[in-house]
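Structure tokens please, single chain.
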Amino acid sequence: MILFSAWNRDLGVLGFLFFLTVSTPALELNSIRHSPPETGVPKIIYKSTLQGELAIHIHFPPGASLRQRPAIVFFFGGGLHGGNVDQFTIQADYFARRGMVAARADYRVGLKQGNTAAMSVEDGKSAIRWIRRNAESLGIDPNRIAAAGSSEGGHVAACTVTADGFEAVAEDSAISVKPNVLILFNPALNLWTSEMIKTLGSAGMAKLLSPNLHLSREMPPTLLLYGSADPLLAQGQQFMASAKEIGFPAELYTVDGVGHVFFNQSYWQNHTRARVDQFLSKYGYTTGESAEIPKTQTLVPSPQRSTNSTREKQIQRTGAFQTTFKEHSPLSSLGELARRMNVKLKRGENPGHQYDLAKESFYVYVPETYQPHTQFGLIVWISPGNDGAIHPAGWRELMDQYHLIWVGADNSGNEMDIYTRRVPLALDAAYNMQKLYTIDPKRVYVAGLSGGGRVSSMTAMHHPDVYAGGIFMIGVNYWKRMEAPSKKGYYWPVSFAKPDANHLSHAGNEGRYVFLTGDFDSNREQTYHYYEYGYKQYLKNALYIQVPQMGHESPPAEWFAKAIEFLDRK
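Here you go.
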């Protein structure tokens, strides 16, 4: 089905818990095995569940196929509530170039499939088992499989080794679900806390799913990577103390002054990748020289407001780079956001900014064709993860094609606060980029994916004087209570305040907005009903796109292009 409409959320006895899931049988992968794609990444369904199908994306090494290659499986982070399989695309590409078969596995998470933590762990085990079962067809050494993940994804990877049970009933238990190496980026390793017990609804479950409580001499070699300011670092240090006491190989890599999920910021992405490469090389997973680490560029705008002539005198960086800014947008303080977005401040809460802008990092991509005398458009990206980079294949080329500049804040993912980080960082990005580059104010758009799509819809409606339009992909919020048709009596919660009359009128009359989902997106029903029975009555220029056969994932470039073309209509 193609819809293209132009209009304008106490396991007392664990033994009783099981989930009806069906894993795919061993697949016939000869065509892939004999001809690994040099471009493009195969996407294969590895498991079917009541909540939907789960896919694994496989990056093969370039060149001729070789048997018995090592493999690495990446699990994205998202704090039990979200995340996106694209988080580790860059790392998967890198380790494929280093001779490994690199896979990115989707798994059930609460935001997408009404999931529990137990389902996430079960899916992680299923992904490892699927890789091992299909090792011959994939050209993989079944005894050299690494599991890697970030935050909750790191927790899932660790639990494939430490958590007994949690296996799909229809799978072959004779095939091991345990990886041979663990690479854990800022993982959660102890859920045995009052907060997590409350979240999981079961003290027993929290204990079973706490890797630090189940470590043994049988643990595989493990690399932990944390920022020194990450509150989860203490759990990593506890892991290391146990490793030393018990006697299994483990290493801890820490970076001073950075917080949670720092590894996907462009600068640290290169360094952490090299550190992981070094660790894997020690165990025979990579060989030869690792790729050179590129230097990071920095761009800091002048504090004075730039004119066209002063822009021409400034260094106009092009390409992809990381930057910092110094000057806040007048609209980005917490007090101003509380006023405009009708958010109540907590007693004693500082109405100023809750972060030091000069220490925040932003990913920027400027097409090489940019010239100061020509106006370009601007996409302000709100990511579901904690880096602002362009990950999906073909999207960067669209920036070139449509003369668009991209900017996205790091450390602004779903785990971060909407009003103290996600919305204000986006406003700061838009403000500073318009001072540095010649930007057409009628082509300043805010866009986001999943949780980022939800936040982008909120700030777009409250800031139509900043953003001329928005693209809300596989996630959107609305200001009215609405019943979910498929769940009689269940109402999607109100997630933000209705914009005031002036801003809503501005958005409705002058803004352009795209609501993009997919046939199999877990947020499809909500996106459609928010558009059809909510936004449509206020917005003169709105487009609903339902991508055929697409799930909860980044849309292919050709569908993102349709969204851009709609926004660019005069």
